[in-house]
């Protein structure tokens, strides 16, 4: 069966899913998006993703042409149309087609929902762990484009990702304008030190990850202390364990940063525990 894409209220074959070359999402990265997961036929944390989408849109003064309830149903209908039991959803709202100038007032927003598959990292790395670097590209200043907005303009992240690839890695840590650890190019980051789980707070210049929040819930339910606090590279280098979270990445260990071995150099005990708990919880 060919992939069916939701495009402004209509399901079309992916080969026919087209937008205008005058769309400001293409011309300027003007728009917002969400990445969601389908597990055992159910969309994971759908309400939280929809809420974050509308928060991002509100922050950039983008009026989404659907109510939250209608958007939720559109996502569910697109999953059903593609008969996807386990998969990935990309929900996009662009500013829409307008003029070649920056002025968005003549644009009519476009809603796109894609249901497909995604594999961010090779399967073996979920057991062996990632080797990553710290990028020289810093996270956007919160007073420029706030990282809490999940916008279509991902050039900041892409530049850091390119640094990682050039270094032979698949991911990179991004620091904020104060030199503190923010997040990775597509994932949130967690440190485990002396049995405590630590992660940067939202004001460190991060996207408040849905998976991030869920993993913190899982940790607290298992009696693992959780602290949101500012972290430096020293905290990263001296961690007992280190792992990343994200909708696409799920939960994955990091075993080396900037040529420094983290902990034992293998996936840690608490990381494995939380990863197992996550895999079980999302399929309940």
Key terms for this structure?
single chain; 284 residues; alpha+beta; D-amino Acid Aminotransferase, Chain A, domain 1; D-amino Acid Aminotransferase, Chain A, domain 2; 9-stranded mixed sheet; 6-stranded antiparallel sheet
Describe this structure in words.
The chain is of the alpha+beta class and 284 residues long. Helices cover 28% and strands 29% of the residues. It contains 8 helices and 15 strands. The strands form 2 sheets. Strands 7, 8, 9, 10, 11, 12, 13, 14 and 15 form a 9-stranded mixed sheet that branches. α6 links the parallel β11 and β12 (226-228). The longest helix is centred in the first third of the chain and has 14 residues, at 46-59.
Mean pLDDT value: 97
N-C termini distance: 28 Å
Decide which structural class fits the backbone.
alpha+beta
In total, how many beta strands? 15
Radius of gyration: 19 Å
Assign the CATH architecture of the largest domain.
Alpha-Beta Barrel
Note the overall shape: globular
Q: Describe the largest sheet.
A: 9 strands, mixed
What is the highest CATH level, the class of the largest domain?
A: Alpha Beta
Uncertain runs: none
Q: Roughly how much helix do the residues carry, as a percent range?
A: 25-40%
Question: Tally the helices: what do you get?
Answer: 8
The fraction of residues in strands falls at: 25-35%
At the fold tier of CATH, the topology name of the largest domain is D-amino Acid Aminotransferase, Chain A, domain 2
How many domains in all? 2
| SSE pattern | EEHEEHHEEHEHEEEEHEHEEEH
CATH superfamily of the largest domain: D-amino Acid Aminotransferase, subunit A, domain 2
């Amino acid at each position: 069966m060919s992939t069916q894409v939701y495009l402004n209220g209509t399901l079309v074959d992916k080969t026919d899913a087209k937008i205008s070359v005058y769309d400001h999402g293409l011309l300027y990265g003007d728009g917002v998006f969400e990445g969601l997961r389908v597990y055992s036929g159910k969309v994971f944390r759908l309400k939280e993703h929809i809420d974050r989408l509308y928060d991002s849109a509100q922050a950039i003064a983008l009026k989404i042409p659907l109510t939250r309830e209608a958007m939720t149903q559109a996502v569910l209908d697109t999953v059903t149309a593609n008969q996807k039991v386990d998969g990935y959803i990309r929900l996009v709202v662009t500013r829409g087609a307008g003029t070649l100038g920056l002025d968005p007032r003549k644009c009519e927003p476009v809603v796109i929902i894609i249901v497909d598959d995604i594999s961010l990292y090779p399967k073996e790395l979920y057991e062996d762990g990632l080797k990553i670097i710290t990028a020289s590209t810093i996270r956007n200043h919160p007073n420029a484009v706030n990282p809490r907005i999940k916008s279509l303009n991902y050039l900041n992240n892409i530049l850091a990702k390119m640094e990682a690839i050039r270094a032979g890695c698949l991911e990179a840590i991004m620091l904020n304008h104060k030199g503190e650890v923010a997040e990775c190019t597509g994932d949130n980051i967690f440190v485990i030190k002396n049995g405590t789980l630590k992660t940067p707070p939202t004001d460190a210049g991060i996207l408040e990850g849905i998976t991030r929040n869920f993993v913190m819930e899982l940790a607290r339910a298992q009696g693992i202390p959780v602290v949101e606090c500012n972290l430096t590279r020293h905290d990263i280098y001296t961690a007992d364990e280190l792992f990343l979270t994200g909708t696409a990445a799920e939960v994955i260990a990091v075993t080396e940063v900037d040529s420094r071995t983290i902990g034992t150099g293998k996936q840690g005990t608490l990381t494995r525990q939380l990863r197992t708990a996550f895999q079980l919880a999302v399929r309940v």
